[in-house]
Amino acid sequence: AGWLSRTSPESALLSRGNDPASLLALVDKEINFAGDPSKTPGPSQPTARRLTQLRDLAETALVNEPLSSRAYRLLGQIADRQGFAERAETLMRAAARTDLHESAAVHWMMWKSFERKDYPAAAYYADALLRSGGGAAIYGDAMPILARMAEDPAAKQEIKNLLAANPSWRSGFLGGLGPYIRDARTPLELFLSLKDTRAPPTTEELNGYQWFLVQHKLDELAYYVWLQFLPPEKLEAAGFLFNGDFEARPSGSPFDWQAAAGVNVIVDFAPRLENPSDHALVVEFGPGRVEFPGVSQSTVLAPGAYLLRGSVNGEVLGRRGVRWGVSCVDGTSLGQS
Length: 337
Prior knowledge:
With 337 residues, this protein is mainly α. It has helices spanning 4-7, 9-15, 20-32, 48-64, 69-82, 85-98, 103-115, 119-131, 136-150, 156-164, 170-176, 186-194, 203-215, 219-228, 232-235; strands at residues 258-259, 265-271, 279-285, 295-296, 325-327, 333-336. It has 15 helices and 6 strands. A two-stranded antiparallel sheet has the order 1-4. Strands 2-3 form a two-stranded antiparallel sheet.
């Protein structure tokens, strides 16, 4: 019966009529189409009479296995379809309390809590749902709720509290928040709330937000975000060309050096041969055809006259050679070496 309960619960019940696993598998199959609670019910939903019969089967299973979160969840789903809202919530809460990996029940409780503006409870269930490790589908379930809470003055503190605890899902949430928000400044408020906590924003989290803003042509806001989180010693060097002496490894920010991978070319930040305490941008081309995307960075400058100055040591044999250039974000060339 234990084996048949997973493949053919009807056959399993012929040999053991009160087997909890088989009873619940049968109910799950009819309620959720082969036990998948995420699937939307189609036109062949169980009738009211059949729902009553399925409820009796699930209750029988619960009598034989009192700590079955699956039984509570199925009974909650049946009560919900029968229109017994209070009973449904009691059962779904019991399912979630028994096992927080009962994701369908946790998801149900998250939405119900959000609808009644019980934001601490909604945040609790969203956190449990994301910690369950359900992958992209789980993120898709929780993200709309958390994004709406992040933009609600009455609920945003709950999101800040969750993020300050640095849960395992934080980076994925912050990186995927963009499509769900109405105000591009919402993540900035979350990042600022984390700035002085024990788990401040990581470089990867901040870079992801900056690139999101750049891709949506919000360059000045992206630049402001970058400046807000620069360490004091680096903030003093910002404002024109950043890391122009190539002393630090690129951070991945759009306002630091970018060196995309090429073909038959090596790009590195290395000590200078004549003075190892100083660094230089080293570009080494191999023989034959080379595809060199270039090395670049973005900055934001006030209107005025500027001079780009540097030193170069090397020799390139080729028709076009290598040169530095300055251009606007739309590609308009301002000058070349």
